[in-house]
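During the no-cost extension, the postdoctoral fellow (Dr. R.K.) reprocessed legacy sequence entries with the updated structure-token encoder. One reprocessed record is reproduced below for audit purposes.
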Amino acid sequence: MKRGLSDGEVGQVSQVAQAIRAYSAEWAIRANGGYLAQACGTAELLALLHTQTLSLGDSSAPPKPPRFAATPRPGAPGIRGEEWLGNGPDLLVISPAHYASAHYATLAATGKLDPSALVQESTDGGLLEMIGAEHSPGMAVTSGSLGIALGVACGRALARRQQGIPGDVWVLISDGELQEGSTWEAFQLAAAHNLGNLRVVLDRNNMQVDGPMSTVMPIGDAVAKLAAFGLDVREHDAHDISGLYLSLEAMKESNGPAILVSNSEPWRGFSFLEARWATHKLHFVRLSPEEKSLLEEEVSLIWQQQ
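Re-encoded structure tokens follow.
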């Protein structure tokens, strides 16, 4: 297994994670709402995947994306969002499409997307849609209906193996997707074909659009269920950079499909979100004037510390 991260590397990952939070918060401030909690819960994870864990390579896509022209059609495949990920052997698939703005923020924080695009191209006709699609920077699959992308990723992993293409297919899924039957079908397929080039990271933030997972549809012991379906399962704190990194690296040693359950706090990073967590849903955050002002102050502090 690869050595652990040095203190300096941990600090660099932390800076990227905080930039992800800041860019995502600025998006929510401009739009008076957004999927901020998803960025707060996955900031360290996305930072690690992009800077330490995956071999994504350099991006040849323009840092300032073009405007949307037309839907793909025969002879005109259109823009593919995965071009912004890089030319390396690994592929990162973001399954929950509402995590798109968090991923755009990650691309900006890692130099693959011009930060100005977060403003200019998140308007009508721009590629940076709040619910990401296949043409959105960094998005490999159109997956607005949860549970779709994991099945697509299984197919791509199987095709890669059959064609002898190196690299792993990594998939970020949400725990809400464990309420989807297609997710478990995909896991069964991955285990049946022993897809050793499929790596899944589960953001377990214990919430979905209608409220806490425990009250909407409890899923029970997710770790035990995933293991019973034949996956090599690990579990770790989503905000412990050093330990999370080692868990991600350990996944690479699995001979079959592997999954990491990343236990996240969707309020991490901004003071008003945790108070909201106790009494309100955090799936989509609308800001009161007081919250907007407080968020602006905390974002300013993040940039001062960069």
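The CA atoms of residues 120 and 126 lie 8 Å apart. Strands lie at 91-94, 169-174, 198-204, 207-208, 211-212, 232-237, 258-263. The remaining legacy entries will be reprocessed before the final report is submitted.
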